[in-house]
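Field: sequence (string)
Field: structure_tokens (string)

Example rows 1 and 2, in order.
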Amino acid sequence: MTLSLMVNGTKFREAISIDVHRSLGELCGYFNVRCSIGLGSFLPFGVGSAAQIVTESNRPVLTGFVEQIEVEQDTGSHDIAISGRDRTCDLVDGYAPSGDKRRWKGPIAFDRIAKTVLADAGLSAILLVNEAGALQDITDKELVSFENSTTVFDFLDTYARRLQVILITNGDGNIVMIRASKATLQGKLIRNIIDKGINILASRLTVNRAYRYNKYVVNSQVPVTFSDSDPSEVINHLGEAVDKDIRPSRILMIDSEEPMTSDVARKRAEFEAAIRLGQSLTYSAVVQGHEVSPGNPWQINRLIAVTDDLCAISDTLLVKEVNFRYDLTTGSTTEIVATYKNAYAPEPITPTPTEPAVRFSDRGA
């Protein structure tokens, strides 16, 4: 079982290690490859080449570009480090062409806006995949303009957060709109001391509430007329969400950059609380191989059953990050990083599950 680097459609066979990272918290995944070639030899490709990392079943886990090549050599070796990102990197780095919201008229679907902006930025080859279900149309009042200082991703993410969806990338390098998944992976993570069942090679648990608050308040100043001219009056629309697990003295105020109704502001506050809930618990487990079953690589935004006696966890968690690794010496492994199963969900935060396993790890946090 191994990962392979494909460059310009051809398998590169000189890699001695490959690392691939994908996360719910980042649109763009990245990879690092180390190789050693003979003295006097040269790479058959250069920076900017199309690259793809595939599993042993030839399933892509990242599709993008080679962005950096670093060469180090002495009298006895010729070591090369190759790194890159998936093809959504141009959304993260590139700025959206300046445009006025009046080019569109609401109600309009988000994917129509997104496809237009991608085409204007020369990124029409990147597809938009909807795994979030039905989305509300964007109204005239919710349309926003974008300036030259706004990246393509920042512009699209403004709408995504309003719709309570997260933008991630799939293995083919396309944008996927998601909400917290209810789909459960076929595999399980197990380290059971009594029954001696185990597929976890190593694990780690971190609980950190530093970024969570008891109350999230989103404030939006809405012109009375919703006109583009300077209004003489504004109405403050507030939306609130409460996380009862956190002490009442912790309050976060968020000023909305664009006008929104109180209902939209409330949903925005709930979504912020859900994202921060997902950041507060990090459980990671390393397993052998890269696929949960033949032909199915480990995926982010999937639920997985975890029984880890050493970390005192027996629960279903949400996978928020995967790190695929191949090393010529240590073999093929995947680090699965997970969090609370109700994190990232666009709905009011419920108290942290009270299962002894989870609460044991959360004491004093």
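Row 2 begins here:
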Amino acid sequence: MQENNISLNGKTILVTGIAGFIGYHVTRYLLRVTKDTIIVGIDNMNGYYDIQLKKERLQGLRLEDLGEKRLIFIQGNIADKDLIKETFLHYKFDVVLNLASQAGVRNSITNPDVYIQTNLIGFYNILEACRHSYDNGETGVCHLVYASSSSVYGSNAKVPYSTEDKVDNPVSLYAATKKSNELLAHAYSKLYNIPSTGLRFFTVYGPAGRPDMAYFGFTDKLVKGETIQIFNYGDCQRDFTYIDDIVEGITRVMQHAPERKMGNDGLPMPPYAIYNIGNSHPENLLDFISVLQFKKFTPLLLLLTGDFFLVALVIYPLILKFFFKESHPYRVLYAGIAPLFVAFLSADTNLVLPVNMRFGKESLGIKRRINAVSFPLFSIFAKGGVALVSCVCFVTILRSYSPLEISRNVIFWLGIHAFLLSFIFCEHPTGSAFLCITLLCLSYGGGFREGYLLLKNAAPIICAFATAFDALTALFGSYIVGLKTKHIVRQDIKHFI
């Protein structure tokens, strides 16, 4: 392919789907960077999503073209053959950018007719118009650029995708229509020597984007407090491509038409090309959701906070009060204020251990012979906090996947595995809770091997809660051991407030 074999300056360009997301941004860019270029835009302004957004895009383009009259808008459907024929005859386009299509995989299941009309018949009309643009010795269309889709790759497991991959097994009608576009374009390039280039786009995002796209839908559900429905346990990777990169790719391709040349058999070779336009770095779906889901952490953090205060203010003091006849059960909490702060801020069991030992001796009066043994043992092996936090977080992840009730089998499985894993990680000073969550997700029979990615951004605070729980357990446990062995020196309350 030659470099810069088409200059867009002074050309007449057809942009179909001009009021769409990509069409709007490409046209705005062309109005800014080209000179003496006439852009004719066609769009049927259908109601697939909010038509007001399309009107605002058109208004933005008119403002870009204010006073220059380089933009011509025609409201119509590319499936209208007479409209397309008359438009080509009147304007004699040099370059055609076909972005008009009915998008969306799910919608193609419930509303297939519009996909056949726009994506197949409409594209056929464009090809026929390009073919007849050479009639009577006319120069005709120098380059046809059309939108395909990464959906043509279907269930292809190999990533990143390549244009050399086999794409003969589409898994949706939308993908089938896009693959058909590529085949039709190849046939017309071969038969009528029309330079054509197909562009497979990968999940385009950016300002004024389509509201039906996943990133808008996910964000909207998070704002409303609704559950995001995830398929295939989130085992999915997609390229996310910013609109400016798409615009740059399209405009570069428009200027680089495939060469018309003869093959070894003396027959014309089809001037035809297919390109992927993505960022070549597939993102995991759960990783993508975790970026959006920080707001989702609020209920989890409230739950963990509530659990912490329930254990610290109710359960442990009641155990001291009724089982060990402690008249001042809250003295342990008084003594533990500083260690708990250290535990929460550092999320490091090893760091909080000497602080716990110091306040256990000086404020609670635990004698050295008990203090030096009980605190290290409790800090290493009593990982109830890690297990509890891991269970709570795992249930949060499970709820993100399914609104169904959690069965008794899952509760039993979760309890056994969480405590076993917390014991395995007994000597890990930091991150024990998140390691447990990760392994729970990896080993859970229901899927979502990478479910822990949903909470990855909250890992520091999750580990902080787990360490604070464990520090609290070590403090109460050591005090109970001191009571039972009578190695407690009673302190006046002023010493440990």
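free_text_note (row 2): The domain at 294-495 is CATH 1.10.3860.10 (Proton glutamate symport protein).
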